[in-house]
Design brief:
Layout: H1 3-13, H2 32-60, H3 65-91, H4 95-102, E1 119-121, H5 122-132, H6 136-149, H7 154-160, H8 181-185, H9 191-199, H10 215-233, E2 240-242, H11 243-252, H12 256-261
Antiparallel strand pairs: 1-2
Length: 271
Amino acid sequence: MGQAKLRKSAKESGRPWAPAMPVAVSSATGTNEQVRLMEHLGKLSKLAEENTRAALQAARGTNSEDNRLDALHTILQGAMALMEREVESGYAQSPTSQNLKSQIACRKGCAFCCHLAVEASIIEAILVWRRATQREDLTMAIRAHAHRSANVDPDKRWAMRQPCPMLGADGACQVYEDRPGSCRAFVSVDAKACERSLMTAGTDKEDLNVPIVPFPRQIETAISIGVRRACAAENLQSCNVELTAALHLLANDPTAPGRWLAGETVFHPYP
């Protein structure tokens, strides 16, 4: 049964659902390199799933909200450390990949991609909100601006040029340490192309040709699937969410994290 049919079946029965990692293709249908890549991504996904389940069980086993959030934070820390280690390993594979790393254009203050709709796990969204609540200016920014782009179609969101509420006046992410994996994995080698893409969004001259490094996104996807599968295995809502929409919900419903951990369907799925 295909992923779409599995998702539909789970929805109709009220079960949480998360996608499966694609299986490694056989040598008859793929190269040895492709087989090794898929096998490796599958192992990363499984590791993320196992680590996440253990932390979720710890989170659900305590009555302290701070302890629950600390347990969720170990999931983020573990997943992002795994991702960053694998990405660095990818850059070290060959002179070509090392040269690619030297071409990365992403820098502090370069924030063109911070106008995209951000797909995040529910855990990531909760932890971004947690960090935002430590600063009054960030919670005010969410309350003032998040509703404008919450649950807006991703293409329309891009055309709105509406920045993430976590973007500071200096062009830097204000929750950088807890930013979602999809933000970490979007790596461009041409900042001018990023700027051109944003400036032409929604026009008849729209240019979406942004050269990115592909393998960080492959790694992030594998780890994200592992996290989602762990949530589904624990009978928790396991869909990804749009970050701004989730922050808008969390700002208006302080019970949302606890209700999610209790097994309720709380968040609007992405997209």
